Amino acid sequence: MTIRDRGIMKFMPALLPPEFRAMLREAENELDNVDMPLLDEQHLEHLNQVICESMEYAMSVRIVYHENKRNNLAVGTIHYVDPIKKAIRIVDKYHEWFELKLENIIDISLHDE
Questions:
Q1: Which of 20, 34, 56, 87 could form a disulfide with 99 if both were Cys (CB 3.0 to 4.6 A apart)?
Q2: Of 82, 97, 73, whose CA–CA distance to 51 is shortest?
């Protein structure tokens, strides 16, 4: 009895056309999209208090912010609050700074290093 191997034919159902793979990747990315939550006045006051405390004592903070329909995390110290741009400048552990808009911030908490 001889073995009749079909070669690539037996794997054909596992191969997907590029258009289908792109569509699957896009659908998977859409599952990760999150809407910006609405923050109440009490939570905004708490955020303000943590920002002031962090700046006064040069404490490290963890900031959860919303950008490009995703929630991201930033860790560092708050260097400056810019009231004109409505943004804060954060310095991370590598001494690089970046700005975050205040309207994108979801939560701030003190971070123990």
A1: 87
A2: 82
